[in-house]
Automatic annotation (TrEMBL):
InterPro entries: SEO_C, SEO_N, SEOA
Region described as Disordered: 1-27
Top-rank taxon, per record: Eukaryota
Comp. bias intervals (Polar residues): 1-15
Name used for this protein in its record: Protein SIEVE ELEMENT OCCLUSION B-like
All copies of domain Sieve element occlusion C-terminal, residue ranges: 491-727
Taxonomic lineage from the root: Eukaryota, Viridiplantae, Streptophyta, Embryophyta, Tracheophyta
Residue ranges occupied by any Sieve element occlusion N-terminal domain in the UniProt entry: 37-319
Annotated source species: Eruca vesicaria subsp. sativa (Garden rocket)
Length: 740
């Protein structure tokens, strides 16, 4: 594949980019190296020397060898550190691979080394020597010129330090050092060489590595259509120039020491030039590194876009089983066992899910414990009910938790998030993806696009062939549990045909105590709110009316929909039980489940496209959810039959019992007398409150209706967008809501 820098030379010979349509901007206009006027003129001179041919140099392998030499030669004054550097893992393999590379370029390396050494000794100007190097290497690409010149420096510098290190150990090294006038016995001079050049050599290597990386960028994703990128790449010759210029300075310094020999014994190296060049290269490296970062980000986006497109295509294709789909979602390369079995806590292969219905529980790490608790209870009961005579569960489906951390870098940097993940999955009895890192970024994007995942939990159902049976079956699970299997739209419609709006539907599967109250002789009040004084007045007055009317009345406090104020409702619930005001749940999870089921019924009806004006369930649920926004509310039933749902003024209705509707109870009955007075007298005075609904932004996936009619006046409701911030358990969550 043609590299970016090589394609740049070809484009420079063309008439320009005027006939091409610019692509997506990769590099912001503020990024890049700023050239002085002198450098602009110098760039033209450098480009005149540049005439690359078709030869290819394996610069990456050669650069690795050169870096190894410089890492071992650029040492502190304590040369024993050389033995502490890691050796190449396979010396024979390295030699074999490098021989073919060096056969092609060894002449060029030797020629450049001799050219710089000779001209620096004859007093030639550094710029003149640098331009001479460009002339000698005119047939190589920019990355080749730079790596070959750095290799020439490694020959010179590596030999210098090799003689220093072996001077006291090897007679040959000692004799050669004396012949070349290497000041091996002058520690001051050696330290001056090492400390004086270390910073500059480090920057030379860094800039070279960046230039090589830029040359390796795939032209498939990175092109010079982007004007800013084209401008930055056009400055690569300047980066190469200053790096070669720095190499010339280093070789000149070494040659000066060896040429003057013992005359240099008591002098320090002049650090001004090396310091200036090191700062220059650092500035160049910072710009190139930022360019690389932006290019890699762009490449990742492009590759993600391709993978995302392929994933969509995969889901639109028919398969014989679900393995291709599951592998694409949660089986990155080289990860053979991406799942953990929740029961055995062992890692397992995706094959355990082959040709099974798979429920993907997708969530971030802020999933509510209440939600997990109820889901686990439903899952465990289902598993227990399907135990065979062999003691094994014969569940027709499997659950897999897919944890999402976006961006994944947050997870990699945060031990707290890692601990949180482990704490969440530890009690889960179902399969879990072994790490959030196994869910690729484009898979998360796919889930957001196709399944409308927005961090709140969703339950995507894939049938045994990998087809999407449901984009979110959580609402079916909350309403009917595993009876909703196989969680298809047809099954959902079938289950709704069996249902009527009764108290059985409202409390089914939540609380056996309330469910056991349901018989034709019992009157039942479900009520909610966050005003304890209102609760006291309402419950005491309601119980007094029942006692006086000689009817059996049961009452249950169900809290409020806003579970973010969990601690407040826990205190109210404790007070209700302590003062014997009514029945109330000790487990906050049950309160959460009650409201989750009501919301799920509403969402289910909306997704099925039911007309809310004529749907009894929709009308009833809308009343409860709307009145809950106002404060206190109550639902009255006789047995399973729901008599009325009303807001907080019900407290006034039961309070005036003795003065008003008490006399009608013997003739009309308890519920009829209460209902008539409430609607004919109390509501006539107080009026009907505004209807109000909140749909969380995460309910976008087909659950937010385009329009909604008021359940009181049946006129179209107005639509708003609001923001809410709830602070519970020291967690701050910003929620966006659609309000009607």
């Amino acid at each position: 594949m043609e590299s970016l820098i090589k394609s740049q030379h070809a484009q420079q010979k063309q008439a320009g980019h005027s006939g091409k349509t610019p692509g997506t901007e990769i590099i912001p206009a503020t990024t890049g190296l700023t050239m002085s006027s002198d450098e602009s003129m110098m760039l033209k001179l450098i480009q005149q020397t540049h005439s690359p041919d078709a030869r290819e140099v394996q610069v990456r392998g050669l650069l690795s060898l050169v870096e190894d030499i410089l890492d071992r030669a650029t040492l502190d004054s304590d040369d024993s550190n050389a033995s502490m550097l890691p050796l190449p893992t396979d010396d024979k393999l390295m030699q074999s691979s490098m021989m073919s590379v060096l056969d092609c370029v060894s002449y060029a390396i030797d020629r450049v080394a001799c050219e710089i050494a000779y001209k620096s000794l004859t007093g030639s100007d550094a710029h003149e020597i640098t331009m001479s190097v460009f002339e000698h290497l005119s047939s190589f690409h920019w990355d080749g010129k730079l790596v070959l010149t750095l290799a020439a420096f490694a020959l010179n510098y590596g030999e210098f330090w090799l003689l220093v290190q072996f001077y006291s150990k090897n007679q040959l090294a000692k004799s050669l050092a004396m012949l070349k006038l290497v000041p091996v016995q002058n520690r001051v001079t050696l330290e001056s060489v090492s400390h004086g050049l270390n910073d500059l050599i480090r920057e030379m290597k860094s800039v070279t590595a960046c230039v090589v990386e830029l040359s390796e960028l795939p032209g498939r994703y990175i092109t010079l259509d982007d004007p800013q990128l084209s401008r930055i790449i056009s400055t690569i010759p300047i980066a190469v120039y200053w790096t070669i210029r720095s190499i010339v300075a280093c070789i000149s310094q070494i040659n000066m020491i060896t040429a003057m020999g013992h005359e240099m014994m008591n002098t320090q190296m002049d650090s001004w030039e090396t310091s200036m060049l090191a700062n220059k290269l650092k500035n160049i490296h910072d710009h190139l590194a930022e360019t690389l970062r932006l290019c890699y980000r762009h490449i990742e986006k492009e590759r993600s876009r391709e993978s995302l497109k392929m994933l969509h295509s995969l889901f639109d294709t028919t398969h014989i089983d679900n393995m291709k789909i599951l592998t694409a979602l949660i089986h990155p390369k080289n990860h053979i066992m991406p799942l953990q079995d929740g029961l055995t806590k062992r890692k397992v292969h995706l094959d355990v899910l082959r040709r099974k219905t798979v429920l993907l529980l997708i969530s971030d790490l802020n999933i509510l414990q209440d939600e997990l608790s109820i889901f686990e209870q439903i899952y465990t009961e289902s598993r227990s009910s399907l135990l065979g005579v062999d003691g094994k569960s014969h569940m027709p489906y499997e659950v897999v938790w897919v944890p999402i951390v976006d961006p994944i870098e947050d997870y990699e940097r945060s031990p707290n998030l890692q601990k949180k993940f482990e704490a969440l999955r530890a009690p889960m009895p179902w399969y879990t993806v072994d790490s959030p890192k196994l869910v690729e970024r484009y898979v998360v994007e796919f889930m957001r696009e196709r399944w409308h995942f927005m961090n709140k939990p969703i339950l995507v159902v894939l049938d045994p062939q990998g087809n999407e049976a449901s984009l979110n079956a959580l609402h079916m699970i909350w309403i009917w549990g595993t009876e909703a299997f196989p969680f298809t739209r047809a099954r959902e419609e079938e289950l709704w045909r069996r249902e009527t709006f009764t108290l059985n539907l409202i409390v089914d599967g939540i609380d056996a105590v309330i469910f056991n109250w349901i018989n034709p002789e019992n009157y039942i009040f479900l009520y909610g709110g966050d005003d304890l004084d209102w609760i006291r007045r309402f419950t005491m007055a309601a119980k007094a009316t029942a006692k006086d009317s000689n009817v059996k009345l049961e009452m249950a406090y169900v809290g409020k929909r806003n579970h973010s104020h969990r601690e407040q409702f826990r205190r109210i619930s404790e007070a209700v039980r302590a003062e014997n005001l009514s029945h109330s749940w000790a487990e906050p999870a049950l309160m959460w489940f009650f409201w989750a089921r009501l919301e799920s019924m509403l969402y289910s009806k909306i997704q099925l496209g039911k007309s809310d004006d004529h749907d009894e369930v929709m009308q009833g649920i809308k009343k409860i959810l709307s009145y809950d926004k106002l404060g206190g509310w109550a639902l009255l039933s006789k047995g399973a039959e729901i008599v009325m749902i009303t807001h907080g003024v019900i407290e006034r209705t039961v309070t005036v019992y003795d003065r008003t509707w008490k006399t009608h109870v013997p003739t009309k009955g308890y519920t009829k007398a209460m209902y008539d007075h409430h609607h004919d007298e109390v509501l006539r005075e107080t009026g009907h409150p505004c209807a109000h609904f909140d749909f969380h932004i995460t309910a976008r996936s087909g659950r937010i209706p385009e329009k909604m009619n008021c359940f009181e006046c049946h006129r179209p409701m107005e639509k708003y967008i609001s923001f809410a911030c709830c602070h519970d358990e020291k967690l701050l969550d910003q929620d966006e809501n659609y309000n009607f």
